[in-house]
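Example 4.3 (complexes with small molecules)
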Amino acid sequence: MKQNLFVYNTLTRTKEGFVPLNAPYVGMYVCGPTVYSDAHMGNARTYISFDLIFRYLTHLGYKVRYVRNITDAGHLEGDADEGEDKISKKAKLSKLEPMEIVQTYTVGFHEVMKILNVLPPSIEPTATGHIIEQIELVKEILAKGYAYEVDGSVYFDVEKYNQAHDYGILSGRHLEDLLTNTRTLGGQDEKRGKLDFALWIKAKPEHLMKWPSPWGVGFPGWHLECSAMSNKYLGEQFDIHGGGLDLIPTHHTNEVAQNMASCGKNPAKYWIHTNMLTVNGQKMSKSLGNSFLPHELFSGNNAILNKGYSPMMVRFFMMQAHYRSTLDFSNDAMEASEKGFKRLMNAFTLLDGLTPSATTEVDIQALQSRCYEALNDDFNSPVLIAELFEASRIINSVHDNKLKIDEANLTLLKKVMQDFAIDILGLKSEQAATDELPKVMDFLVQLRSEAKVNRDYATSDKIRDGLQKIGFQLKDSKEGTTWNKI
Ligand code: AMP
Ligand code: ZN
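Answer. The structure with zinc ion bound is encoded below.
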């Protein structure tokens, strides 16, 4: 394994591109979060969608090298290289080091991903950890004549690039349209063309995150990191590049331009873009003020929500829509989805208790093939779920002695449920955990009471504060102690 990794990296570093070794490798790069605030449910939808793709390709036997970056520098507030760096701005507001902001939200992001059963990627590189690679890339683009330097900043020359390549290849938009719809440059602008974008930005003295470079002290443009890091870990061209579709017009368009300009290759064979999670038809976004956080959805603690939903239920809700369709959030849709989720999970728990008959009235192999067909058709999770509902109907009928299934079909049915519901859709039964919770809580309340009786207040406070931290509140009264989820 180690040897493979070494050979693979050597190949990518010598710029020979993605070369499958003995095993069928798949290289997948997904644009990760900018860690200046909590990831909202819309962000989570995108990562859940790619988790399904990661899980399914792995299930099929591919060795997937899944790279999902962390943007911890260089993402400015405005798309046109204006405004402050989002992380530095938050750091100044909170009077913290930028890296403290990065640490806080990276940890939070990982926690949410874990709760939602999103598998960690194979490599999670950061922009700040790859400044040297980014500087090298700027040098290459300059050497190819597609960038120019002005007073310590370096810009990509879009119009020149478009003479040899198609700048709008991803978005399907022509340069002329883009030029008409972009505001004209101001007198202060250093850019030569309206669509030019920054590869390297000169840092003002007060700028917090900055590095030395051949052009002076500055920081990389946001699009640069993904070109540099995907190239480093997956080669000049790899299989899948993804992100939300809001990234197409600027971030991914500019990424393609950077890669084409430096090495003449579009980085990905397949671009996969997930559609947006919307609220009342509007994209969920922090700036629109209609976003809510995963933990608010779990606890129900947001004015938009009628109640809270379990993380697995939320994951199931996301999977019920195809990744290329918009998914509109509403309480009604969640409630409808919750019924389906419970039906599926109940069926799963019945499986072990089913008794096979000598004969069979069902053909599970056909069902299994349909599950594969669904996912082979552009990872069509809603069609897969419809097949799993059919599996649940079979399980319930066998359980009620209304349908016969033989040993071989029953074994296959168990495999289909395990493979598709648990391993690929990434759902877990939450029944056991919620059933046991009151017992565990009562035990902790009891321990705390004993500590108090023994005047061991350090321990009793530790239990109360520890529970508070993970979202449980204890209330003392004359009748005793009760607990509730915050
Ligand atoms: P950001 O941290 O803003 O760069 O976003 C991280 C990822 O979440 C990107 O791939 C975005 O395209 C994606 N994203 C942002 N808003 C939504 C949304 N409402 N629905 C689905 N994906 C989103
Ligand atoms: Zn990116």
